[in-house]
Write a structure and sequence with these properties.
binds cobalt (II) ion; alpha+beta; globular; Arc Repressor Mutant, subunit A; 4-stranded antiparallel beta sheet; 285 residues; single chain
Length: 285
């Protein structure tokens, strides 16, 4: 189990280092997403979710659509969030690439992540991770995004307990040796909250109840291989909007709408997956 997490992490580390060099004005976002997902497979894992490419005030859950023509532009704050799994054992990492003048925002997210990882040891509360992240954010003059969190993993489940809040909380749990989780501070000069936009490109299967419509059954049989992991609409051979919406309304699929900062202020993000060992946390991504 740990070996699979570790191998998924090593693969992501390599892909992250490669992809950073591609993030330049003029590069197509779709090209970058397909590169990340393709490289994960080439190196021997599977994507644990679609490559997220969220720009500026969009914090999470953005991924290009099938014929997406958008390119990165001068001034963009680009967050790349990627996941890989081997036999369901996941690693998850994210990095922010600044094509503008957001140096401090990026540095803040990276510092918060680094300091949070430094304090981890068996016996402390996950709340102390959040407390550290919030403290660093305030020191830089920013806020963490309060309603986005890090998370643990279960086989084929990208978001499982423990929830790693980006602030001090009464809901912390005790950290134990052997735990594997992702820490992901999101930092902003805005309100520190995100809300959903109408746009959705990412879904997952949440119920196996039978559906009658042939086209709906076709979609479900196509995404069966992802089990409970999120998939992109562009991964479908025939992504029919009407059918997908119907499956969401019937509670068969879960939609992950784009999450955007409510004051429309830019958001940075840094993320690593760690394994808790006797003497501290070891980064596997
Ligand atoms: Co994550």
């Amino acid at each position: 189990m740990i070996e699979n997490h570790e191998r998924a992490g090593e693969i992501l580390k390599e892909v992250r280092e490669e992809v950073v060099k591609m993030i330049k004005p003029g590069t197509r976002m779709l090209e970058v997403a397909e590169f990340v997902e393709g490289r994960i497979i080439e190196l021997g894992a599977q994507p644990a979710f679609p490559c997220n490419i969220s720009l500026n005030e969009d914090a999470a859950h953005c991924t290009p659509s099938k014929n997406d023509q958008r390119v990165f532009r001068e001034g963009d704050l680009v967050k790349i969030d990627m996941g890989a799994h081997i036999e369901g054992y996941i690693a998850d990492t994210a990095i922010t690439v600044d094509l503008g003048d957001h140096v401090e925002l990026v540095e803040c997210a990276e510092t918060a992540l680094e300091k949070a990882i430094e304090i981890i040891e068996p016996g402390i509360s996950t709340s102390e991770i959040g407390e550290t992240i919030e403290k660093i954010a305030r020191e830089f003059g920013f806020k963490p995004v309060y309603n986005l969190t890090g998370h643990g993993f279960m086989p084929y489940l990208a978001h499982a307990p423990p929830t790693i809040y980006n602030y001090r909380t009464e809901r912390g749990v005790k950290i134990e040796e052997g735990m594997v989780f992702a820490i992901e501070p999101f930092i902003t000069g805005g309100a520190g909250r995100v809300s959903e936009r109408s746009e959705t490109e990412i879904y997952s299967v949440i119920s196996s109840k039978p559906v009658r419509m042939k086209m709906a059954r076709e979609i479900l049989s196509e995404v069966e291989k992802y089990r409970t992991l999120p998939f992109a609409k562009r991964w479908l051979s025939n992504p029919r909007e009407i059918i997908i919406s119907k499956l969401v309304r019937e509670g068969v699929l879960r939609a992950y709408p784009v999450l955007t900062e409510i004051k429309k202020e830019p958001v940075s993000q840094a993320e690593h997956t760690v394994i808790v060992e006797e003497d501290g946390a070891r980064i596997i991504t």
